[in-house]
């Protein structure tokens, strides 16, 4: 399996665009969300991160086959 650097760069660029949408459209909501994250335990954040990674892998598998 060979890495396609164009696909990797495209994926990273889209990640940055998606990450920037919430603070651009709703900075107050982003601040509230960050404050809420501080109150979560490390275990809760890890579970949320794992869920996000698994959802991303399933989506990637569905899109790319």
Detailed description of the structure:
With 65 residues, this protein is an all-alpha fold. The chain has one domain (5-64). The chain has 3 helices and no strands. The longest helix is centred in the last third of the chain and has 23 residues, at 42-64. It is extended and about 40 Å long.
Low-confidence stretches: none
* Rg, Cα atoms, Å: 15 Å
Binned, the helix content reads over 70%
Largest sheet: none
Strand content: under 5%
Q: How many domain modules?
A: 1
Shape: extended
The secondary-structure class comes to: mainly alpha
> Number of helical runs?
3
Average residue-wise pLDDT? 93
Order of helices and strands: HHH
Give me the count of strands.
0
Distance between the termini: 15 Å
Summarize the helices and strands and which ones pair or pack.
Elements: H1 5-25, H2 27-39, H3 42-64
Helix pairs in contact: 1-2
Question: How would you summarize this macromolecular structure in one to three sentences?
Answer:
By secondary structure, this protein is mostly helical. It has helices at 5-25, 27-39, 42-64. The longest helix has 23 residues, at 42-64.
């Amino acid at each position: 399996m060979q890495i396609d650097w164009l696909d990797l760069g495209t994926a990273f660029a889209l990640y940055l665009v998606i990450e920037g949408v919430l603070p651009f459209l709703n900075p107050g909501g982003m601040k509230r969300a960050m404050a809420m994250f501080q109150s979560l335990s490390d275990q809760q954040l890890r579970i949320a991160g794992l869920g996000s990674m698994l959802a991303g892998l399933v989506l990637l598998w569905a899109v790319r086959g």
